[in-house]
Specification:
flat, alpha/beta, 4-stranded mixed beta sheet
Length: about 120
């Protein structure tokens, strides 16, 4: 169950990152006098989807060493809501009014994944 929660959090972070980058691209060059670009709300929903990660190798200091041959994780329902977020990206500040992300019936299959901590 703890591993399923970890992948749920990773999924939420991925959806949030894609949403924030998309909002930043839409906001483009409409910066205000104080250098802050106001962006509207982000509503993202992912339902009845299956994601596959195959042949992924990740190495960095401080990571544990871990191998996954094949495993599937299911996320029945999860969500995150925020009244506002400030993001600094490429020397520009974006203020996003509200963020609402929901995941329903999402599964992730991980195959041939290697995580290596440098020693």
């Amino acid at each position: 169950m703890r591993t399923t929660t970890r992948f749920g959090v990773i999924g939420l972070v991925a959806v949030l990152a894609v949403g924030l980058l998309s909002a930043g691209a839409v906001a483009g060059g409409s910066g205000g006098a104080d250098g802050v670009t106001q962006v509207g709300s982000i509503d993202a929903s992912l339902e009845d989807e299956h994601v596959e990660l195959d042949g992924l190798e990740l190495s960095a200091d401080g990571l544990p060493s871990y191998e996954i041959d094949e495993r599937t994780y299911d996320l029945d329902s999860a969500g995150i809501q925020s009244d506002g977020v400030t993001v600094d990206l490429n020397d520009r500040t974006y203020e996003i009014c509200s963020v609402d992300i929901s995941l329903e019936n999402v599964s992730v299959t991980v195959s041939d994944v290697s995580i290596n901590g440098d020693e």
